[in-house]
Specification:
The protein is mostly beta strands and about 425 residues long. The chain has two helices and 28 strands. The protein is about 5% helix and about 40% strand.
Length: about 425
Amino acid sequence: MKTASVHSLKLRLLSPLLLAALSALSARAQTFNVIHAFTGGLDGFQPFAGVTIDQGGNLYGTTTEYVRGSVFQMRHRSGGWTLTTLYQFGFGEWIPQSRIIQGPGGALYGTTSTGGTSPNCFEFGCGTVYGIRPPQTICRTSSCPWAATFVSFTGNDGDAPGFVDPAFDAAGNMYVTTTTGGTSFDGNIVQLTRAGGGVWIPTSIYNFSGPDGISPYSGVTLDAQGNLYGTTWMGGPNGFGTVYRLTPSGSGWTLDTLYAFRNTSDGADPVGGLVFDQAGNLYGTTEKGGSGNGGVVFELSPSGGGWNFTVLHSFTGTYGPQATLTIDAAGNLYGTTYSVGAFQEGSVFKLTRTNGGWTFTDLHDFTGGSDGANPLGGVTLDSGGNMYGTAAYGGIESNNCPSDQNPGCGTVWEITP
């Protein structure tokens, strides 16, 4: 990650009207709005993950607050948005960096990169998978905290689940990855199954060891057959990360490396995960490499028992996409970059399939001012084509939000067509 550039610091001295005008130019006929600017008070600060939308149009997200963090909900009311904190993490429940995922039964699930009850991973714990539910009794106040349950990793079964979104299969089993867990401390893939009383039992189903990849920073994507697909940030045959498939095999699992990055025009260091289109093609990103050294968007297409790799777009800058892409019903791709863009503070983009190729559209360039800076999370779409996401920094500057990156407590934003 980068520190605030001299250029971005100069931008903050510009008038808000000029910043708004510059932002409007980058929106390319889209309308960008900040729907919440975090203050560092009861609403928290530094949302590292993107948001999730439910059937009622409500948004759910997390703040990291350096050590503890919170889960929040945003409701659309009277033409605006209202934020409510659903759960405030306590001592030992540290750093929720993943997106909130709705699981079987309606509970919300996520991961914390540290915390938990195990003493095996230094003083901060090995990380957790958590679930939160609304209170089971009648609540007569305007804000009622939700109840949380935690599964603590112990090291060999997982350690540091990073920016990992949980995923569920058709049977209701949950899957996550960890960045430094497993027998070789190079990361692993974990299956969590329900036992009596609703307790989740974690089992490490694959341990990375270096040549097959190191440090999966994102979760997995499942196909209809129950195979798991994901990326490793580093390692692999060339040392710059991999795309892998994990297939059920008898009583175990078999891993195949579908692509190994070379740090040339193909990119390097994939942080985000993968998405499928309706034809079975996989799409992902890297944060570095490519012709512009700012990462790439890539496609992997199944062909004759193998996979064809194609770069769809290369970014110019320092740190490109960090989050998993979003795909709509028409097959268009949406994502964010961390420090690529006109102001080197990150951007929101769209890739549209046209005439056998892809057209890139820059939807918004963050200025580092009131609109936010450095989005680490991805894009969420509602049924009307509106886009939602977060910026980890920027927005309101406050002493409540200490940062070694850009000043500001972070924002939640909306782009409307």
